[in-house]
Amino acid sequence: MDKLEELIYNSFDVVVFKKDTNGKFIIHSRPTDWLLFFLNHNSEGTYRLTQYFPYLGCFIDEAERHWKSGKIEALTSGPWVEADEKGHELALEASAIKIDGEDILLLQNLGEKYRQEVQRLQSLREGLLSQEKLENEIAKRTRHVQQQKEQIAIKLVSLTSYRDEETEAHVKRIGLYAAAMAKALGWDEQRIDDIRIAATMHDIGKIGIPDKILLKKGKLTDEEFEIMKQHTEIGANLLGDSNIPVLNMASTIALCHHERWDGQGYPHGLREKEIPVTARIVCIVDKYDALIHERVYKKAFSEDVVTKLMKEMSGRSLDPELLELFFELLPIMQRICSEVTDKVTDNRNQDPYELLEEIRLSDIA
């Protein structure tokens, strides 16, 4: 071995072996101290390396195939760690290469290079953990903001609840139903949260309807019904002209949730996809909740009856494609219906956001 080779081997802390015909390895460079330790200070020059480095067993099998292939590029084992006689960890790496028809095995002590790489990866890992903590904190604060928005919305809606049969649980359910459908449609998280809040305000315009009409038990006259229909525009005006996206969405829903797929709705007689999708969603879920629950003017209908009635509305008052999606999500809607109630025995302080999170993680593809 000439001085140049020796200098290279020493610089890279590499030991070179040639494989003989018996599957043993003949050392071709000066053995290093760390190698002699693992070889039990056996300096005879020919070794069955897998006896001293069991980890090499699997790699040698790959190396044999590599040598036989005749490829000139090196095949590396990847680093592994051994401990020296003082308990210090050594990171080693093996490489198989074909040179002038010889099967060559390089065994390298990675030393400082490996430690630096470990430190780099550790630093990267800590950075990712810090980023995850930051993202979790942002998500927590975002959720807090969403909860505040919802509380404001519920307080606004409660102004009409004192005068109408609608309850806090009803408007929360409408928001959750709508959010479940938005999730199934592939909306982003922000729009899902926005419709969950905006949908609760769909009937806020009823605050401007006189009590004698709003609270009337019997059928409204044509004149009274024309006044009642004004709640859509009143609600839109109350919520509109804002730079807050959730209020703009709420304004659209308030204005259009009584439009019909066939164009026979109000206030503008929009038809089919002229009606904003948010309003089409709320129209469906509001119908479902009204039918499935008892009201001053009606008893609650059974699930079968509700399903039949809503199917009859398909293509008439309700968007047929969205209605089909609604029926696919019916088990989720039933769960919302059963868990968000006004009964004293139920958990009225239940966080709708948490319920939706559970539902969308487990049920909605």
| CATH class category of the largest domain | Mainly Alpha
**Percent in helix:** 55-70%
Percent of residues in beta strands: 5-15%
Query: How would you sum up the global shape?
Result: rod-shaped
Strand count, sense and barrel status of the largest sheet are: 7 strands, antiparallel
Task: Find the structural class using helix and strand composition.
Answer: alpha+beta
The rounded distance between the terminal residues' Cα atoms is 66 Å
CATH second-level architecture of the largest domain: Orthogonal Bundle
Average pLDDT figure: 82
Oligomeric status: single chain
CATH superfamily of the largest domain: Hypothetical protein af1432
What descriptive keywords fit this protein?
365 residues; alpha+beta; Beta-Lactamase; Hypothetical protein af1432; 2 domains; seven-stranded antiparallel beta sheet; 16 helices; 7 strands; 55% helix; rod-shaped; disordered C terminus; hydrolase; HD_GYP_dom; phosphoric diester hydrolase activity; HD/PDEase_dom; Metal-dependent phosphohydrolase
Describe the structure.
- The protein is α+β, with helices and mostly antiparallel strands and 365 residues long.
- It folds into two domains: 3-109, Beta-Lactamase (2-Layer Sandwich); 144-362, Hypothetical protein af1432 (Orthogonal Bundle).
- The chain has helices at 3-12, 33-38, 49-52, 56-69, 111-161, 168-184, 189-198, 211-214, 222-228, 231-239, 245-256, 277-292, 303-313, 320-328, 330-339, 352-362, and strands spanning 14-19, 25-27, 46-47, 75-76, 80-83, 89-99, 102-109.
- Strands 1, 2, 3, 4, 5, 6 and 7 form a seven-stranded antiparallel β-sheet that branches.
- A hairpin with a 2-residue loop joins strand 6 and strand 7.
- The chain is rod-shaped, with a radius of gyration of 36 Å.
- The two termini are 66 Å apart.
